[in-house]
Amino acid sequence: MCFPFSAPCGWRLVAVAEGRFKGFGKFNVVHDHNQGAAFEELWFTQKLDHFNGADSRVWKQRYFVNEAFYKPGGPVFLMIGGEGPANPAWMKEGTWLTYAEKLGALCFMLEHRFYGKSHPTADLSTDNLRLLSSRQALADLAHFRTVMGETRGLTNRKWVAFGGSYPGSLAAWFRLKYPHLVHASVATSAPVFATVNFPEYLEVVWRSLASENADCPVLVKKASDTLAERLKDPKTFENITKDFKYSATYPLKLYVPLAVVCEI
Length: 264
Hints:
Keywords: Glycoprotein, Hydrolase, Protease, Signal. The chain is an alpha/beta fold. It has 2 domains: 13-188, 3-Layer(aba) Sandwich (Rossmann fold); 200-263, no CATH class. The chain has 8 helices and 7 strands. Residues 1-14 and 18-36 have low confidence and may be disordered.
């Protein structure tokens, strides 16, 4: 799971904008006026398929709002959810709230389709998973921004998208694909060029482990290889759920990719 403003591929910042806000270097740590506050889950009526005019189906997409710093006429910040549940902790923590306090911004966070509590379909069949794509996710953002702008009187406000890692990519693409809707994007550790194989991802992890002990990454690889072999063997496969105390809605199946188990 990737959180905004953190990613294993290192700290890089991509800023895509029409202009630059002044005074970023003078920002102080945000004073959280909502410390301990529970942010209410809100639900947005989202289109199921943005690219099929004959499909009028809709679903409920989860989002959160922080109005603590908003000043009339201020910008609107949109934190983009990624491949995991939207964490409401980001509504009261993070650098983006430092910016929000300085600029008087209204803050939204929109959960990514098919993750967390945002379920567009009843199951994860192959036919339904065709609706899980960055293209649909970007259209979700565009529709959310448009409707929120109209219903809350924020259409003419300057919207700024935030995200890290995959959501960072979405933030950059959002600005590039829908420049009339988003004034700027802050994309942290964003791999904006899609690649099928991304070995650099694990190379960073290897170097990080080796910085503490040269034998550490070797032992981790040995453990991973052992687990992979056990997943292939029906005799040892059943022990995986017990050893890893696995419990989920969807049971593990034989020959499940190792990455799936590690992600769990």
